[in-house]
Amino acid sequence: MKKECFINRIIMNSSRWKEKSEVKILYQNESIYFHCVSIFHYIFMIFSFMLFGFICFDDDDEFLKGIGGPGVRLLYLRKNYLVQLQVGFFFAVMMHIVEALYAFKICKELNIRSDMALKWFLQTFICGYISLRHLLEFKDQQKSKQK
Questions:
Q1: Is the separation of the CB atoms in 108 and 121 below 8 Å?
Q2: Cα 54 to Cα 58: distance, rounded to the nearest angstrom
Q3: Rounded distance between C-alpha atoms, residue 80 and residue 9, angstroms
Q4: Computed from CA positions of residues 79, 84, 90, 96, in that sequence, does the dihedral angle turn out positive or negative?
Q5: By the number of CB atoms within 10 A of the CB, which of 11, 31, 56, 140 ranks highest?
Q6: 16-26: per-residue pLDDT in tens?
Q7: Neighbour tally for 61: CB within 10 Å
Q8: ∠ CA 49-85-123 to the nearest 5 degrees?
């Protein structure tokens, strides 16, 4: 199933269940390599971070009570484990920052253009390892080509 990547408008197959040979990159030049993850991953990660931040730092209980069973459980966690939730939130944010910086470092090692490196940085900052794994696979492919 082909889709249009909303970040850089490159048409590619991003299904992880298909054979690796079926995933084709339209550009032959490795310096402009970019693999866009699914829009589902963007929506899920942004929603998850917003909910996690809301649980950790907002005092309004009505929203959590209004979403039923999961809200009651999240309210229990917030009332009894607030410090642990806040530490977990900051840890998750720091992990995304470290992953994004690592993706930028890999892009510089692979001589990927700076505009594509910025796209990798932003995508990895938002989606985390879901994005970073594509760059790591590309890095391994480049190493095997050089041997």
A1: no
A2: 5
A3: 46
A4: negative
A5: 56
A6: 554 444 444 43
A7: 12
A8: 25
